[in-house]
Each structure stands twice: as structure tokens, then as C-alpha cells.
Amino acid sequence: MKILLVYPKYPETFWSFKHALKFISKKGAYPPLGLLTVAAMLPSEWEKKLVDMNASRLTDDDINWADYVFISAMAIQKESVKEVISRCKSLAARTVAGGPLFTTSPEEYDDVNHLVLGEAEAILPSFLQDLKEGHARHIYKPSAHPDISKTPLPLWSLINMKNY
Question: Domains of the chain, with CATH numbers?
Fold first, then answer.
């Protein structure tokens, strides 16, 4: 299975530090910790690739390469999320989305194939089992809070830390 993890672009605001990052030769202020952690929770035999749109460009080839495109975002990234979902849909790519934006307003994302809401540690295993068995649902919500002491270390190998 090939998984593309996409972190949408932050809009240009004071807090994006876009102009300040140029002075220190960096592309992004923060690595996408949530997606790196989700990547570590996926089966090790799956191929994984991460595109942080704040540090690099998302291409159609990236999307076409993947069996599934995983998207995670915060509310501030909403406009970029809409563009990513639209591109995925136009390329017939299957999408899985989670993170604060999707958890707080899942009704706005009917175009996403699978919504994994809440903390991934609590619900991702159920989604992955259903996906393996061929009957993944549209929405997954946890019934309990996860034990974060069991959360794996982020899969840092997917990014170039020199970008941050």
C-alpha cells in the first residue's frame, strides 16, 4: 500500500513566519508532527511519502502515486485543504482525513472518503482493520481517550529537518 501524507499550506499571516523564514533559509516553521506520528502508526511494510506544502510543492504525480492520500490540518489551513481535496477528487484519489479541522466540522467534508476524527491513537487501528478487510466506513469517531504513553515516536525519516 502506498500512502501519501499531505500537510496543507498555512495562509500568509504574521504567525506563518513566511517572511522571517527567508532570513534563516528555512521553508517551514513547524514540521507536521501529527502526520509524522500517524505515519509511525501505519503498517511498516506500507510505502509512505510526506509532502508538507509549506516546505515543498504537491504534484499530481505525488497524488497519482498513492493508493490513499492522508490529510491532516488545523482550521487556519482550511483554504489549502479545500484545494487538496479538490485535486485529489479530480484525480480519483482516495482520501483519508483527520486532525482538528476535520474533527470540529466533519459535515463540511463529504468529499473525503474516510474521516478519522479525534485522536488517531484511539481510532486509527479500527480504521486500518476495516480498510484491510475491505469495508472501511466514511466516519470514525473514538469512544474513549487514548493512552498517549503508547503513542509511537514520529517517523522523522519522512522529512528533511533542514527545512524547519
Answer: 2-163 (3.40.50.280)
Question: What does the alpha-carbon distance between residue 104 and residue 97 come to, in Å, rounded to a whole number?
Answer: 12
Q: Burial-class residue 16 by CB neighbours within 10 Å (0-12, 13-18, 19+).
A: middle
**Three-class SS of residue 2?**
strand
Tens digit of pLDDT for each residue in 84-114? Answer: 999 999 999 999 999 999 999 999 999 999 9
The string over 104-130, giving b where at least 16 C-beta atoms fall within 10 Å of a residue's C-beta and e elsewhere, is eebeebeebbbbbbbbbbbbbebbbee
Look up the pTM and report it. Answer: 0.93
